[in-house]
Amino acid sequence: MQIPPYLKRGDSVAIVSTARKITKDEVQPALALLKSWGLNPILGKTIGAESNQFAGDDALRAKDFQEMLDNTEVKAIWCARGGYGTVRMIDALDFSNFLKHPKWIVGYSDITVFHNHIHTLGVVTLHAQMCLEIENKTEATRETLRKALFGEPYSIEYALPVASRTSATLQRSGEAQGPLVGGNLSMLYSLCGSPSALNTQGKILFLEDLDEHLYHVDRMMQNLKRNGMLKELAGLMVGGMSDMKDHTQAHGFATDRPFGKTAEEIIYDTVKEYSYPVCFNFPAGHIKDNRALVMGRMSNLKIDEKRVSLN
């Protein structure tokens, strides 16, 4: 895997939106953060643009991103926000210059499209907090982003909650080594069968998601399994599975059709026949503590009954 050059003070970082619209006011905290690191932020034409829910139409979003890909002065592209829309313009992009002069592509959620597509091209990317609401995230969220961009070594380690049913019954101890891949479960599911789909064999897979019905989490996990994406993993890391919904409300009326399992239990049931290590509550995803993950880098994952570490 190619690793883009690490940043240094004075480098330029482009801010664009490939998905949902965002205002210039909303990215001001991110601009201030970049400047505090000695970097030069450049706003793309999609910041402030609007086409229904999108940051401009598909053509504008593709053109804006392409210009930043091809601009040799830009050393990283920081996606401003997620939502939905990146998949609508991914096939309009030409990555030939990017492969000659790789740069850091930063974001998560809908930006999983880029992480997966660019992984198939053999370049490392950065799964990390986007510009929106970065000021409301933890210091570790911001600091791991900075360290990853500047090439400073760091690891992620956390203790398991003592009374957590997830950690007590679902965690599977062990050690795994392999390239780190993955991202948003819904996006991974949507990319199956496309040129952007992942080959997960021998890799550590990271999953996170937001605002999904539990039965749909099961549907997506079954799809990954049937596509062979879960059988030969080196390890599995599950981050925030946030604001999940059960099927106890339909058309405004209460129903008696709960799925009966948490998102974590659904995921574990899907992979319980395999032997690789599995952890939950990893500090990444749609949560306040959203630490940066270098996708495509060779990583070491250690899981025991009390602690998880990723190096």
UniProtKB/TrEMBL annotation:
Domain LD-carboxypeptidase C-terminal positions: 177-300
Domain LD-carboxypeptidase N-terminal: 13-128
Domain of life: Bacteria
InterPro entries reported for this sequence: Peptidase_S66_N, Peptidase_S66C, S66_fam
Signal sequence residues: none
Protein name as it appears in the record: LD-carboxypeptidase
